[in-house]
């Protein structure tokens, strides 16, 4: 099974790139770099900075280049501006949120871009204050949403910290901000496609993949694999109490992907049949761990104990400046739970909706910034917020 490991796949990809360079006449320079490589260091770790999208101050340009040309039309704002009514960032956000395939954080990014376009400010200071108030309003709309908060923070960081502040002409500066805001929204919208492309080499014919809950980006990964005619099957946990796994199994069945639905407590029972685990994330934290739907932690523990790789698919706007120390160090995110039978008032019910999975139980993170190990997530966050 060594040939299915993450490090082997990365090394193989690097060797293929080196062969292509040699065929193209890379010359002695390419040969020299190969001969000078430290044999004790995996090619993946040695070349990550060059080949796997390390974040720099020009992150937007790098991500745009990684995405490439996409013929799919960009979604348009569903809210028709009314000149007789004052602009509301919450109304704009809610109108974007109604689009079924748009993530909540991306809807917030689109709404913040609309704030800049509709602003009546006459100075950069006024515009920044207005944008900060709109961002705070969106974050307070759902204080438990990690991706919403992280998306708003990253938007503020990349849109307002630009050379546009040095323009003498305010209109030119505002146009520059609008341009960056729209590009940020476009990249965030296309993040799933980038992640799906990066993950395809890790899904091999005959593999069995365990998924937990309903993740749009994991669905995109599996959908692209099915379109690429890969032969695999998926085990979906039920995902109690809201049965999100049942929803994902229905979507996969539409794609003619073989699916088996598991009750949540059957994960350890079936893990010996599983080749890899693929999960999404509500948030990626500074430690390299993830916050995700309740049950992710115990799945990762079982997979780790049986030497099964655990892959995380997460958009970069979910990278959050958080460092939870344990399960109780998370902001409460509660949900209603119906057991189907009356519960005595004296019985306490655990209603937490998510848990924290430490980085040592994760193998790789597939993001629109590249394929990352959990240990380098903190480096990416530092670059994002520099």
TrEMBL record:
GO-annotated molecular function: guanyl-nucleotide exchange factor activity; translation initiation factor activity
Keyword Protein biosynthesis: yes
The keyword Protein biosynthesis is assigned to this record: yes
Matches recorded under Gene3D superfamilies: Translation initiation factor eif-2b, domain 2, Translation initiation factor eIF-2B, N-terminal domain
One Pfam assignment: IF-2B
Family annotation (SUPFAM superfamilies): NagB/RpiA/CoA transferase-like
Region described as Disordered: 1-38
Protein name per the record: Translation initiation factor eIF2B subunit alpha
Lineage: Eukaryota, Viridiplantae, Streptophyta, Embryophyta, Tracheophyta
């Amino acid at each position: 099974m060594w040939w299915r490991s993450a490090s082997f796949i990365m090394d193989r990809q690097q060797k293929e790139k080196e062969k292509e360079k040699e065929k193209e006449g890379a010359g002695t320079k390419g040969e020299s770099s190969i001969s000078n490589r430290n044999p004790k260091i995996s090619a993946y770790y040695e070349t990550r900075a060059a080949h796997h999208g390390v974040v720099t101050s020009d992150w937007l340009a790098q991500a745009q280049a990684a995405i490439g040309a996409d013929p799919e039309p960009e979604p348009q704002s569903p809210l028709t501006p009314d000149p007789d009514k004052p602009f509301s960032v919450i109304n704009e956000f809610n109108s974007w949120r109604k689009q079924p395939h748009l993530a909540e954080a991306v809807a917030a990014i689109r709404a913040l871009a609309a704030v800049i376009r509709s602003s009546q400010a006459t100075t950069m200071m006024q515009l920044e204050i207005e944008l900060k108030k709109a961002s705070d309003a969106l974050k307070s709309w759902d204080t438990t949403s990690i991706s919403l908060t992280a998306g708003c923070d990253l938007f503020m960081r990349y849109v307002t910290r630009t050379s546009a502040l040095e323009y003498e002409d305010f209109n030119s500066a505002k146009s520059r901000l609008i341009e960056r805001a729209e590009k940020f929204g476009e990249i965030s919208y296309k993040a799933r496609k980038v992640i799906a492309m990066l993950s395809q080499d890790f899904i091999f014919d005959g593999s069995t993949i365990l998924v937990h809950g309903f993740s749009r980006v994991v669905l995109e990964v599996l959908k692209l694999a099915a379109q690429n005619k890969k032969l695999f099957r998926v085990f979906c946990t039920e995902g109690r109490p809201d049965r999100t796994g049942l929803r994902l199994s229905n979507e996969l069945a539409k794609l003619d992907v073989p699916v088996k639905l598991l009750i949540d407590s059957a994960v350890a029972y079936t893990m010996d049949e599983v080749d890899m685990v693929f999960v999404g994330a509500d948030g990626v934290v500074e430690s390299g761990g993830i916050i995700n739907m309740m049950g992710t932690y115990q799945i990762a523990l079982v997979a780790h104990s049986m030497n099964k790789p655990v892959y995380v698919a997460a958009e970069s706007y979910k990278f959050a400046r958080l460092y939870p120390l344990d399960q109780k160090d998370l902001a409460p995110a509660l949900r209603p739970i119906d057991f189907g039978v009356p519960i005595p008032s004296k019985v306490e019910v655990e209603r937490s909706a998510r848990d924290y999975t430490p980085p040592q139980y994760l193998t790789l993170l597939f993001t629109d910034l590249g394929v990352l190990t959990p240990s380098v997530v903190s480096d990416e966050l530092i670059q994002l917020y520099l």
